[in-house]
Backbone:
């Protein structure tokens, strides 16, 4: 179970099932077994329309690749989810504020082709936040970034978590485990939690030791 306000990181190699798991958490893939609940609502009991509505209202998704529409501006990309669901008013103002929050307010009118990889990822994060989701799911959000930009994006996600956002992120990079409040490892479709000592030592020392199974 992921509690409100946690930053959960799921580690695993390519092909281990991480992205499939996130797809199930987001309601994009129906699981063959088990139960997934978002704020107490059993997603297995919802039809496709209800799942889509729940996803639009409660979940922000940061994809592995930014997935920005090249023919519209950064701000317009951020606003795209509001075409399907609007949580509250003043979404235009919120979009501008979010771009400021992620550090690229001055680039609101820029088109994706003029943005760096890090800037595009920041737009994608702002887009994931526009409908004020309770949960942010991030699929390898730093996989295509250089080391310095990776650190900037992880610090941004960590700040969002400190501000109260619940984050579930998958990555193949164990060094990023230091940002998590809890760490899981996934291997060939099986997931297990690391010990509390592993998570705490990562956050305190800023390093990520080799994974150890929980006992």
Residues:
């Amino acid at each position: 179970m992921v509690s409100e306000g946690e930053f959960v990181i799921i580690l695993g190699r390519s092909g281990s099932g991480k992205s499939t798991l996130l797809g199930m958490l987001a309601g994009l893939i129906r699981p063959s077994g088990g139960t997934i609940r978002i704020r107490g609502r059993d997603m297995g009991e919802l039809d496709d329309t209800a799942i889509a509505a729940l996803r639009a209202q409660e979940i922000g998704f940061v994809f592995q690749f930014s997935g920005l529409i090249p023919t519209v501006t950064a701000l317009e990309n951020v606003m795209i989810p509001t075409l399907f669901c609007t949580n509250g008013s003043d979404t235009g103002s919120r979009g501008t504020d979010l771009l400021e929050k992620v550090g690229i307010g001055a680039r609101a009118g820029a088109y994706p082709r003029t943005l760096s990889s890090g800037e595009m990822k920041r737009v994608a994060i702002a887009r994931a936040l526009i409908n004020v989701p309770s949960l942010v799911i991030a699929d390898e959000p730093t996989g295509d970034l250089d080391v310095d930009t990776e650190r900037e994006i992880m610090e941004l996600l960590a700040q969002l978590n400190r501000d109260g956002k619940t984050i579930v992120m998958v990555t193949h990079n164990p060094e990023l485990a230091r940002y998590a409040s809890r760490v899981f490892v996934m291997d060939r479709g099986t997931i297990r939690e690391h010990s509390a000592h592993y998570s705490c030592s990562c956050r305190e020392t800023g390093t990520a030791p080799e994974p150890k199974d929980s006992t």
Notes: The chain is about 35% helix and 15% strand. The chain has one domain: 7-205.
